[in-house]
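Ligand-bound model needed. LQZAQKY5.
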Amino acid sequence: MMEETTKSGKFGRKVVQVHEAQQKLMAYASPLEMENVPIRQSAGRRLAEDITAPHPFPAFNRSGMDGYAVIAADTGAARDEETVWLRVVDEIPCGFVSEAKITPGTAARIMTGAQVPEGADAVVMLEATMTREEDGVSWVGVRTVIQAGRNVTPRGFEIRSGDKVLEAGRQITAGDIAVLAAFGIAEIPVIRRPKAAIFATGSELLGVGDPLQPGKIRDSNSPMLEVLIREAGGEPVMLGAIADDLELARTKVEMALEAYDLVITIGGVSVGDYDIMGDLIREDPDGMLFNKVAMRPGSVTTAAVRGGTPIIALSGNPGACFVGFHLFAYPVLAAMQGAPSPFLPEGVAVLAKDYQKVNNFTRFVRARLELQDGVMHAYPASIDESSVMVTIKDSDCLLVVSPDERGLIAGSKVRFIKLP
Ligand SMILES: Nc1nc2c(c(=O)[nH]1)N[C@H]1C(S)=C(S)[C@@H](COP(=O)(O)OP(=O)(O)OC[C@H]3O[C@@H](n4cnc5c(N)ncnc54)[C@H](O)[C@@H]3O)O[C@H]1N2
Ligand code: MOO
Ligand SMILES: [Mg+2]
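Prediction:
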């Protein structure tokens, strides 16, 4: 009798591969609605729509030099080392449009960034000219032959009107801000930030401000996740820590599911007597996505969906919590913001130190990347057990060590996932 209970309960878990678990979750990570934000608050957000150029850029033929706007053909005689003299008909500062039309034999003084006057097709730089005054008339002498188009940036050189300049889903960078500003787009259509509720379970948990008590620990995972969620573009909603009490957890989860886009819980997913999150998820077997993943740390990571909202129940062990967040919560948050490639990027590095631990499951080893003579090297953390907290701070990648690898020796190639 006892055995039957346990088989169908905590222990009878079906192991799924990491990518399979990720795919199950991603089915519930669709892009959220659009909102408009002022340009100054849009950096780092993801565009909800393609941005097309409302006008060409530059919008006018622009002088690239301080000098004289001329008709290139007029300078042809300079080939015979003869100075060509042109009558100066206007002076054009930046921001002003000349009413003069340049006709053969004439030129206009012009500044860098000013609109090239009608009729002119080139600008001679100031250093290649000389001037003289005669009866109140200014003349400019040109001693070199100028090609048509010289020192003139034609209208639409960078972007033509109607060109797609920024793609939907793109994360807005400083360069994008420059583009948006140049086109006068002050309100930016972005995907709203996913609201991700976090709560921790564990009767041993104290707050950061609490004095240490025997047998207790301070909740370090919640504040860590708060930062990770914010860095991933989400809006963390801190629901605090609760004791290992199924009723309490149920109430919290139900409330969070109503109000937020994603619910992340910490702890209580293993086989312990007080591992209530596992029990809670099992109450609705249809909604369960997975409760055992072929990975270390974080094998007990559990996920479910209720009313279309995903719940990710991360392990309480700090290392497992950290790894579980990056493999499962990060891509969900990215996809909810419309990221075209929501998973963290992968690469290959040279292992800088032996790594001999072998598992039955793929191991995600905290490590630090360092460029040495232009080659990326990876230093695995000194201690990387699931329960270890302190080496999280030293890692900017996770090495992916598959179970068939019989340990890795320094100098071998190793796959890594780059952390944000
Ligand atoms: N008999 C077995 N025991 C365990 C197994 C197993 O397969 N059989 N799996 C081990 C593995 S692997 C992991 S990982 C952990 C998973 O534990 P839970 O996810 O259930 O997490 P808790 O039991 O709540 O806590 C584990 C550990 O982490 C500390 N913790 C919890 N919450 C926080 C927090 N918010 N901040 C900092 N530290 C936290 C907690 O005090 C425990 O030390 O189970 C193994 N056991
Ligand atoms: O779930 Mo544990 O972190 O696999 O080591
Ligand atoms: Mg436990």
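The CA atoms of residues 367 and 380 lie 4 Å apart.
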